[in-house]
Amino acid sequence: MSGTPTTAPAQEHLNPFEIVQKQIDEAAGRLQLPQHVIDILKKPKRVLSVSFPVKMDDGSVQVFEGYRSQHNDAIGPGKGGIRFHPDVTLDEVKALSMWMSFKCGVVGLPYGGGKGGVICDPRKLSKGELERVSRGFMEAIADFIGPDKDIPAPDVYTTPEIMGWMMDTYSRLKGVNTPGIITGKPLILGGSKGRNEATAQGCVYTVLAALKELEISPVGATVAVQGFGNAGRIAARLLAEQGCRIVAVSDSKGGLYQAEGLDLPKVFALKDHSKLADYGAPYVITNAELLELEVDILIPAALENVITGANAGNVRAKIIAEAANGPTTPEADKILQEMGVLVIPDILANAGGVTVSYFEWVQNLAQFYWTEEEVRERLSQRMHASYDAVRALSREHRTDLRTAAFMISIKRISEAMSARGWI
Ligand code: NAD
């Protein structure tokens, strides 16, 4: 960039792999860990890159590309979702696998981090094509994963149905029914009760804890949710059940805002049968506008890097609960902290999903299934305990919740690496 005037605004780095490395540096620095430990944590242990052919409905053959990254298995097998999205990159998958390690660490699960992604747009695939892509990817990564090695789950644009196809492909390849290879499956194939709501439910537990701390009643508290899929849509419903007023929601095409509160049953019906914008022109807003609304609670529940150095100063929420992974950049974090916004970081706020995925895996291995109440009770207990632990450490070290959450995980992973004699 030589020759660039010094007055030009610095370009913010938005590569998620570089962002997670920065977050590790921040937390590991406070723990005063030796450099070699930080060096281990800053890279995934293994990464697989695959390409596989898929027969399309029109008779053509299309070659798809995908990745699976395993970050650190000192504590246990890798665990983390598979994303289907046109913008998937290797660096994104690596970063997401790293956030998974730290997420599992925060809630005390016996897992390391894993993540997968396929570059595709499922919205443009027929159901048959989607099934062949799902089975093709599983076939391509089957030798790399395993129920004691690395266990995938759903993520953006992947569903319980896709998990079922993938479990079936893996089981056929190995000649053994293996429900523990993947979580987020349909109930009939060994899915867990409560898994579908788990990410949102866990997020809601952390929001309620934060509201209590700020002495804001959930009844009437205003909420904006970006992303209207598994995480965002269910979070909106669960918060409405707590008495919150959902004033804004959005999906990839844009959002809606109604100050007195959206008619949620109408919004759900529009999302299922037409499009959000059919709610009415005066209520239509952009995704960028949604992030800057004056609300008590903002829930980013879509993709990375939506709150950056460029717009963080315009955020008017009191609490940000990161249902999405990586929605806030380090530069935005600094600004939000100065503004006094309470950011519940992704590795805590959305850890409910992997927690119930863990419960599903435990049930699959034991072949003994729990009631929905048992799942919810155990999730609530773990989320509340984790929130309290992160909050206490953040106070002790006078730091934000993200750094405190990373510190808890990094300490745990380091102890496991030390006990194994790696460091
Ligand atoms: P999903 O596929 O069910 O839903 C994604 C939603 O985001 C859709 O409504 C889509 O329209 C919307 N979206 C896509 N691009 C957008 C854009 N540019 N702007 C606004 N909205 C957009 O996915 P999900 O499982 O709900 O995942 C959402 C986020 O939550 C991701 O960051 C994911 O990693 C994270 N997460 C999911 C789980 C889980 O269990 N599903 C667990 C932890 C974290």
Could you walk me through the main structural features you see in this protein, from its secondary elements to its overall organization?
This protein is α/β, with parallel strands linked by helices and 423 residues long. The chain has 14 helices and twelve strands. The chain has a seven-stranded mixed β-sheet with strand order 9-8-7-6-10-11-12, with helices on both faces. A five-stranded mixed β-sheet has the order 1-2-4-3-5. The structure holds nicotinamide-adenine-dinucleotide (NAD).
Q: What is the H-and-E element order?
A: HHEEEHEHEHHEHEEHEHEEHEHHHH
How far is the first residue's CA from the last residue's CA?
A: 39 Å
Count of distinct structural domains: 2
CATH level 1 class label of the largest domain: Alpha Beta
Short structural description:
By secondary structure, the protein is of the alpha/beta class.
Throw out a few tags for this protein:
single chain; 423 residues; alpha/beta; Rossmann fold; seven-stranded mixed sheet; five-stranded mixed sheet; 14 helices; globular; binds nicotinamide-adenine-dinucleotide
SSE layout:
Blueprint lengths: L15 H16 L3 H7 L4 E10 L5 E10 L7 E8 L4 H17 L5 E8 L7 H15 L8 E5 L5 H15 L20 H19 L8 E5 L3 H12 L3 E7 L2 E4 L6 H10 L10 E2 L1 H5 L5 E4 L18 E3 L8 H10 L2 E3 L1 H4 L1 H16 L5 H25 L4 H19 L4
Parallel strand pairs: 3-4, 3-5, 6-7, 6-10, 10-11, 11-12
Antiparallel strand pairs: 1-2, 2-4, 7-8, 8-9
This protein binds nicotinamide-adenine-dinucleotide (NAD).
The site of nicotinamide-adenine-dinucleotide (NAD) has 24 residues, from helix 7 and strand 7.
